[in-house]
Write a structure and sequence with these properties.
The chain is mainly alpha-helical. The chain folds into 2 domains: 1-186 and 404-426, SecY subunit domain (Preprotein translocase SecY subunit); 188-393, Preprotein translocase SecY subunit (Orthogonal Bundle), CATH 1.10.3370. It has 18 helices and 5 strands. Strands 4-1-5 form a 3-stranded antiparallel beta sheet, sandwiched between helices. A two-stranded antiparallel sheet has the order 2-3. Helix 8 (103-135) runs antiparallel to helix 9, helix 12 (207-233) packs antiparallel against helix 17 (351-385) and helix 13 (269-287) packs antiparallel against helix 14 (292-300). It is globular and about 80 Å long. The relative contact order is 0.11.
């Protein structure tokens, strides 16, 4: 392992990418301590029982309760990405055409996502400012100060979007995922402090029992990590046979290979999408708290409530199927096999091959989606069973941590294999 890390550091271009990523992360973490003017952060921190605020604080790495310029984190960007991807699936024909155009089309869709991110950022920042002004958390009470707060929050969200794009282009891994990953990891120290206060400080006479509970908690988290890694790496291999071909004067002999289909091809994207989408009705309801429908949403759909958990699992399943078929296009895959004289043994090329791939993908996605749904609920049940309701660590966080770590390691491994033929994963 040490030799692999040394090889990683010897590659100049990879070393530059890692240092650039660490530099952007450092700038981001420093920015989470720059508060927006006019906010009574002490009063905001005392509202720790608000489930939505706890969730926003988790994904912003503690920046929300400090109400820094990065308080909204990348939630507007994620919501914008969800909307654009949904519109690509036959809703707007132009978006679907751009998706098929290659790099130029993706650039247009990226530009639309940026504009939509800024628009949603203004809406979310305005809603937060309106809510805090109504609750008396702001020091200032004039429209110009409100406008400054909205502009500062929107600028911070836009800057984070740019940070994410720069990491993706010049650093390691997916930039937006890296930012969320760092935000969640940065909360582990606070979680440890809350566990200490809930067990050791509140019950100093139960030292042995408290130590035993900590060991059981750590063992449960390690077991969850192991299961997540195992399923994330699991594949269903479809055998493929290529016939003998003659191209010009070159003769290509037939060969056997396989198509690797991941059990969870969508990764952590469905989890992020589901959480971001569920934040929308709860956020809107906080602006209209005195209305009947808003009271119902706030009562039944707050994070980690029973209805919230059910809705999250259902949305994860739906988004897993949706995003898997976006990642794995059975029609395009069948066409490519037929074009290159490849076929699945026992299956006719063309339409039959496409239907076979769809059946296989649907079968493995059923397991993958249920797995994501169960993992998103298990840590909440584990913490509730140990009377740690003050600790906010959902399965969503664990899935994001493992998924982003695996994705980043695989990218670095690809760079290492090009030079040293030896990577991280054995």
């Amino acid at each position: 392992m040490l030799g692999t890390i040394a090889n990683l550091w010897r590659l100049k271009h990879l070393r530059k990418r890692i240092l650039f990523t660490l530099f952007v992360i450092a700038v981001y973490r420093i920015g989470t301590y720059f508060p927006v003017p006019g906010m009574n952060t002490a009063a905001l921190s005392n509202s720790g029982q608000n489930a939505l605020f706890n969730l926003l604080n988790m994904f912003s790495g503690g920046a929300f309760y400090r109400f820094s310029i990065f308080a909204m984190s990348v939630t507007p960007y994620i919501t914008a990405s969800i909307i654009v991807q949904l519109l690509q699936s036959g809703v707007i024909a132009r978006f679907e055409e751009w998706q098929k155009e290659g790099e130029s089309g993706r650039q247009r869709l990226t530009q639309i996502t940026r504009y939509m991110t800024v628009t949603l950022g203004v809406i979310q920042a305005s809603g937060l400012t309106f809510t805090f002004a109504r609750e008396g958390v702001l020091y200032v009470h004039d429209w110009w100060s409100y406008a400054v707060i909205v502009i500062a929050l929107t600028a911070g969200d836009t800057l984070l979007m740019w940070f994410g794009e720069m990491i993706t282009e010049k650093g390691i891994g997916n930039g937006i995922s890296i930012i969320i990953f760092v935000s969640i990891i940065s909360r582990f120290g606070q979680m440890g402090q809350e566990i200490y206060q809930s067990w050791f400080y509140a019950h100093p006479d139960q030292l042995f029992l408290n130590v035993l509970k900590v060991l059981l908690l750590l063992a449960g988290i390690v077991a969850l990590f192991a299961v997540i890694v195992y399923v994330q790496q699991a594949e269903r291999k479809i055998p493929v046979q290529y016939a003998k071909r003659v191209v010009g004067r070159t003769v290509y002999s037939g060969q056997q290979t396989h198509i690797p289909l991941k059990v969870n091809a969508a990764g952590v994207i469905p989890v992020i999408f589901a959480v971001s989408l569920l934040m929308v009705p709860y956020t809107i309801a906080t602006y209209f708290a005195k209305h009947v429908w808003a009271e119902a949403v706030l009562r039944y759909l707050y994070p980690n409530s029973a209805w919230y958990v059910v809705a999250e699992v259902l949305l994860i399943i739906v988004f897993t199927f949706f995003y898997t078929h976006v990642q794995i296009n059975p029609e395009q895959l069948a066409e490519q096999l037929q074009k290159h004289a490849g076929y699945i043994p026992g299956v006719r090329p063309g339409q039959d091959t496409e239907e076979y791939i769809v059946r296989v993908v649907n079968r493995i996605t059923v397991f993958g989606s249920l797995f994501l749904g169960v993992i998103s609920v298990l840590p909440f049940l584990l913490l509730s069973g140990m009377n740690l309701n003050s600790v906010y660590l959902g399965g969503t966080s664990l899935l994001i941590i493992v998924g982003v770590a695996l994705q980043t390691m695989q990218q670095m491994e690809g760079q290492l294999l090009q030079r040293h033929y030896r990577g991280f994963i054995r």
